[in-house]
Amino acid sequence: MVDINKHNKSSKTRTYNLVKVFLRSLSIQSSWNFSNMQNIAFVFSLLPIVKKSGRNRKQIAGFLTRHLELFSTHPYLSGPVIGSVVKLEEHVRESGNCTEAVNLKKALMAPYAAIGDPFFGGALRPSTAIIGVIMAIKGFILAPFVFLVIYNPLHLWVRLKGFIEGYRDGRGAVDFIRILNLPERSGNIRWISVILLGFLAGAVLPVPSLPYISNLEILEKLIVLVIILLCFWMIKRGISPILILYGSSMLFLIISL
Predict the structure, then answer these.
(1) What is the DSSP code string of 21-74?
(2) Greatest CA separation for the chain
(3) Which of 2-6, 38-42, 141-145, 227-231 has the lowest mean pLDDT?
(4) Model-level pTM greater than 0.85?
(5) 55 within 8 A of 141, measured Cβ to Cβ
(6) Which of 21, 89, 179, 226 is 20 to 30 A from 43 (CA-CA)?
């Protein structure tokens, strides 16, 4: 009975520490520095497991030394890396091998940065921003909150699910990110952005009050169609959707004057 209670207490303590680690990982961008980028916030996220691990001062010093090295990845994909490192660090005292966690961290941070930037910054954020702009133009006062409601749940889910999968077996984050297939999804979301730009053009351009379609109106619609096709061509050429968004918004604003 005592052993069962002790096991339950240990399990609750571990769960509590993992929750603390994940919540701290949300502040990964809170301590950037030029030399080692996100390393301080990375170690800050891991501290709860160090304090409760029973390590001596020498072991804690070794832990801090190896994890205060350079760390830089996309903030939203830091959760899977941290989850994997936590799991591997739990086995350091058993195996004595402290290099596996460091090697995994170094192997994942650059590819995850390359995957996360185009998806979150180059596809998802512009697409949701266009939705917010359209709703704002239509006079919907809660448009900024709609943007947050659409954008935030997805990246929070990726962080949490990635952290859980990473902790589950130490390398589960690799399979999790691979299954998400973010590069392909980035292309799909960019298609949606092009369609939304068409709706944005319709929301910005004035609607004539005449009951018939004038030649000027036909010309305006053709111009908008050409602009949309041009945006799609620029995306296919690899031009940043953010630059296209700002440029299109300025152009539509000038046309509407």
Answers:
(1) HHHHHTTTTTT-BTTTBTHHHHHHHHHHHHHTTT--HHHHHHHHHHHSS-B---
(2) 87
(3) 2-6
(4) no
(5) no
(6) 179
Report the SS3 class of residue 91: coil
pLDDT at 28 > cutoff 50: yes
Whole-number Cα distances in Å, 156 to 6, 117, 152, 179, 204: 33, 15, 6, 17, 32
Query: 138 is written with which tokens?
Result: 């239509």
Q: How many CB atoms lie within 10 A of CB 166?
A: 28
Q: How many CB atoms lie within 10 A of CB 199?
A: 14
Higher pLDDT, 53 or 143: 143
Residue 157 has pLDDT above 90, yes or no: yes
Q: Residue 209: what are its φ and ψ, rounded to 5°?
A: -85, -5
What residues contact 39, with CB distance under 8 A and at least 6 apart?
33, 67, 68, 69, 70, 71
d(CA 180, CA 203): 33
Confidence of residue 2 (pLDDT cuts 50, 70, 90): very low
117-142 burial, b at 16+ Cβ within 10 Å, e below that, comes to bbbbbbbbbbbbbbbbbbbbeeeeee
Two structure tokens written together for 73: 């990845």
